[in-house]
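Record type: monomer structure entry
Structure origin: computed from sequence
Chain ID: A
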Amino acid sequence: MEQQLNHRAWFEPPSKRLAMWRDFRKSLDSNDILAVCETVVDWWQSAPLVNIAIDPVDSSRWPTAWEMLHQGDFCEDSLALGMGYTIHYANPNVKNDLVYITHTKEQFQRLCVQIDNKYLLNFRRGVISTLPIDNACIVNYRVNINKIT
């Protein structure tokens, strides 16, 4: 039932979507970081996507969490931003960096969120990864979420 409510949130009016996000954040047990990451990835993976909602390399123009959820437009890159915001506002003491990655072998660039220097969210949609340590993966930049909130 809770899973159905999470998926329904994306199709609710902005005020209801924001309230559901608040309730979701407050329900997270931020003492278990891996469980939080799993729950947050699952919640955000059901967001409907548009082609471009943010410029992933210009953090000065990124919307706040409330602006993003109110507007309701999400892209592959803004999913990372949404996940980062969710974890930050659930527990601002968790190390939370947004990283822009170029994967030369698979030929993609993507904004991801790295939690506790371990868990990489949004590298693969719906999956928790780790930052690959090979020559094919380049971190173009990193910004701590505290600098944009």
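Annotation 1: Residues 1-5 have pLDDT under 50 and may be disordered.
Annotation 2: The first helix runs from residue 2 to 8.
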